[in-house]
Specification:
By secondary structure, this protein is mainly alpha-helical. Helix content is 37%, strand content 0%.
């Protein structure tokens, strides 16, 4: 019995030693290639050394050295010819992304890149990321909002409107708010519409506004249908991110010919202050037995 245990221990020890030697060799090989590249590319090497890719290569966890993305560098090192080395930023978008997806295709965040809206718009990984580092998550710019607003300038305009989500914070050192674009969207692809990282718009909204999700005795159908019916999530010139001010917003659906669509006077209680909400305060739904018209 003791002899069997002893043999098993010896085999395990040998296997561990073999594995560690392999990791050390990989780390040594990666380091050797990196040192050769560093001779000419000191600035790139300095920023790259602190990235997650460099750390993975140093520990031999993955082949994450210079040659992982740029290919074999012997010919380039000897001749200095730029065409003798692969530069993903100079490749077409499909080839550039394929370099990254060689490792990241099975990652939860990136597995839906193929067929995504951004891929369809001829973007690649290096359109938004700087692989050699410099910023958080290897972004090409300091903040997520800066990267996204490069294309989505209309959304950037909404972020500066008076009613908005906390995507900006002038008091923060970086200017970034409590939310970022990735709080709601997965830029690499998602099941939901508009790259929403949830099954639907409402499911994403309910992650923060959970009180609106609860079933109500008296429901307001647009609330359960789509939050975007009434709200513009990126920002609005109207209160509460509304797409238009009340009573006009309510009148888009409520056209029964009573006070909702009547000729409203200048100081009419149906038009001023909170308009319809002066009386119908429980606009998202009511649990009061007497709240059939969302008044309580």
């Amino acid at each position: 019995m003791n002899r069997k245990i002893s043999i098993k221990a010896i085999l395990l020890t040998a296997a561990a030693a073999w594995l560690l030697s392999g990791l050390a060799f990989a780390a040594g090989a990666s380091s050797a290639v990196g040192e050769k590249c560093k001779g000419c590319h000191e600035d790139l090497a300095a920023t790259f050394s602190s990235t997650i890719h460099a750390k993975a290569g140093a520990y031999g966890i993955k082949d994450a050295g210079c040659e992982s993305c740029h290919g074999k560098g012997d010919a380039h090192a000897k001749s200095g010819d730029k065409s003798a080395i692969t530069n993903p930023s100079k490749l077409d978008e499909e080839a550039a992304s394929a370099t990254c997806l060689a490792c990241h295709s099975k990652s939860k965040g990136q597995m839906r890149w193929r067929g995504s809206v951004h891929e369809g718009q001829k973007l690649s990984c290096v359109s938004c990321h700087s692989i050699h580092g410099g910023h958080e998550k290897l972004l090409a710019k300091k903040l997520q909002t800066e990267v996204c607003s490069t294309c989505h300038s209309n959304i950037r305009a909404d972020m500066y409107k008076r009613s908005k989500h906390p995507l900006r914070d002038s008091s923060a050192p970086t200017g970034e708010g409590k939310m970022t674009c990735s709080s709601c969207h997965n830029a690499h692809g998602a099941k939901g519409e508009k790259l929403i990282d949830a099954k639907s718009f409402n499911d994403k909204c309910f992650e923060c506004h959970v009180e609106k999700k609860a079933p109500m005795l008296w429901e307001h159908s647009p609330v359960k249908e789509d939050c975007m019916t009434c709200h513009n999530s990126h920002g609005s010139a109207n209160d509460k991110l509304l797409v238009t001010k009340v009573p006009r917003l309510c009148q888009q659906c409520h056209m029964q010919g009573r006070h909702q669509t009547g000729a409203l006077g200048t100081n009419s209680t149906y038009a001023v202050n909170r308009g319809c909400l002066n009386c119908h305060t429980m606009i998202h739904g009511s649990n009061n037995p007497s709240g059939a018209v969302l008044q309580r």
